[in-house]
């Protein structure tokens, strides 16, 4: 039984790979997509430029500015000297986003009051700007959490987060498995369409429809796809 099944699978594979055009359609797109998509199809923002206009000379604004500069997503930090420089910075694409600290930012934080800051994004690159804004929000949230922990009573418990899969959080390792699944699904659809078109061109489709195909025959064709 298995010998006959393997013979049918081999016959279907030989029939599929016999034509050069079919081989090119099946192999070349897969190789190109697997090699290029991990570098292009990513939701990670790196090497971005951030501009900061600081009206506050307090320690909290300075500390957040330093944390923004140390973030992996930002490699360049522009320090603006006046509010009139904000719009040209965005219009000329000198920075992906601008952070503006108001004059009472540090004072409000020291008094444990609400301390808003302004964040201006470049809407022409909305996806990257929104991702970068999420990074900034996370940095501000972590800093706020540290301030609250300093005010509260000391706690001996400590939460340790450990990533077992992809410990370095390299986004390419998240993209590649999903690409393999999507490319495989698309490849199966392409092979099925090519098989039906070839059977119809050769005039054997009607013969297959009226023939008493056994389970081994159907399984062999599915293994080919």
UniProtKB/TrEMBL annotation:
InterPro entries: ABC-2_transporter_component, ABC2_TM. It is a multi-pass membrane protein. Residues 25-211 form the ABC-2 type transporter transmembrane domain. It comes from the Bacteria. Coiled coil: none annotated. Pfam families: ABC2_membrane_3. Its main location: membrane. This is ABC-2 type transporter transmembrane domain-containing protein. It comes from Klebsiella pneumoniae.
